[in-house]
Predict the structure.
Amino acid sequence: MYLPEYPLPDERGRYGPYGGRYVPETLMPALEELEAAYRELRRDPDFLAELDDHLRHYAGRPSPLYFARNLTEAWGGARVYLKREDLNHTGAHKINNTLGQALIARRMGKRRVIAETGAGQHGVSVATVAALFGLEAVIYMGAEDVRRQELNVFRMELLGAEVRTVTSGTRTLKDATNEAIRDWVTHVEDTFYILGSVVGPHPYPMLVRDLQSVIGLEIARQLEEAEGRRTPDVIVAAVGGGSNAIGAFAPFAYLPAGKRPRLIGVEAAGEGLASGRHAASIGAGKRGVLHGSYMYLLHDEDGQILPAHSVSAGLDYPGVGPEHSHYADAGVAEYAAVTDDEALAAFQLLSRAEGILPALESAHAVAYAAKIAPQLARDEVLVINLSGRGDKDVTEVMRIMGKESR
Amino acid sequence: MSRIHDAFHGARAEGRAAVVPYLTAGYPSPEAYLETATRLLEFADLMEIGLPYSDPLGDGPTIQRAGEAALRAGVRTSDVIEMVRVLRERTDKPLLLMTYVNPVFAWGAERFFGSFAEAGLDGVILPDLPPDEDEALVDAAQDAGLETVFLLAPTSTDDRIRTVVARTTGFVYTVSVTGVTGARDRLPDLSPLVRRIRAHTDRPVAVGFGISGAETARQAARVADGVVVGSALLGRLAAGEDPAPLLAEIRRAARVE
């Protein structure tokens, strides 16, 4: 087990112009302290062994790289593999990050952890590791999401976490994140903020990327066994804040251009980019600052943050991580967007074709793969990062399908 | 010297800490805001104007709600520039804008700062900009002729204090508590922090966050050159009361003993 070191960010926490630390001064010492602690721990053999042990025996890693024979035949092009992050404990890639951050929190002597959550996947993951390590956990969740995701609220409470309902702003993930940051500003001395994606002030985008890189590193190793090559031709992953995608991309992103696979991030086009109801920060946003980081962002001419929309709560965020913003400008990765309807169709397609219910987030990646796989040669390899399982979305999908058929 | 410099010295000459009220621009309506601000100017040495923002992560519930209400009522950046222009016609006292950085980026720093300076603004307070994080933004404000004010907090190390005061030209805004804005019943002992800051700068030091009335103002005035009060005034406004008597009381309490 090791945590890879990449050329970016620079020493000021920047990926090209993106990233940085636009935060209240109160937090600056804590961010410096976290960065210093992490830079030490990432090379500490005891810490790495502890993380590795938990990833294996608690989270269930490595997750399989599954050759999707039926999809491959149905699409008639590239050989399609699914990276099965949905099989991790708690049902998504989130646990890779929360285990790592909780272990860092423990090493730093912090007994209280806080987190933001949208649909509740990251919140459940944080509540899980807090239970495991005996930490006090407070999870901030927008009132709108609390209403929509009642079951996840109860799951977090069963795990012993306190869920605080956020009623400010749009009452969703963005406002839950504001409230978590306000809590951190107030309790910074004894509290560790477990951020859930590759967003926020430096060092979070770096820290979360490094912890999620296990996804891409495993893809390389598993592909070598399956295909005799370490690099696929294409990797497709859904992008909200961007943590599952960066985990799949980063280990390949710094290869020389000729050796790098096509990396394709799929944003949520919601009801269509023209409708204004979407979450495509790269596809339809402009640069700006949200939650401490300079990135592509959905905001109006005055810089007021606009509400994002997606059928998938995990993609429903008006910004995208600074490293993705940089990849987009530098042409390291491509970014596309698929609509709610396309994602719902892919949700059903994967369920029927392979017997796997994907999370609605991951269904966005499947939907885009369906568009490009048929155009690829039969000896080319396409990997879809299946970031999470769809059980959490079944009620929502039932509601939408039921409404349409009646 | 600048209006800001003169305002602190003027208050000091009267044996007081400078009184700095904060109101959210356009709250509860543009007209009512201008009327209240004009009345508060009578008891103020400097005036802080809050630009409403959708995601004010350094602010507590009172200022959040005022900002949300102003945005719902349709207040835009260009409207706030006009409010600055009106206030400038009514007073010679220093006017400072408190804004998060994203509205600045959205307009472009040169256009944003230039427009406010042209309307008569004296300085800008940037609560989510550690000045070393974006030197170009600080330069743009100063090039537009605005003084730059940044925040320091009880958690600030001597290193951070040195870095922040190096880019400060107006006054040092000291956050009284580890936390977000909002009225509080009492404040922690402020003298160790203010003493550490004064070891690195001769600029005036104002204390804000948590000033709720005479007692907290008296406590702040004992160690600082200025007292900032925001949430307590907005709380009065939200309750349909006149905030002017509270500011008058704070001014009386802000005597330097």
About this structure: Chain A touches chain B through 39 residues (CB under 8 Å).
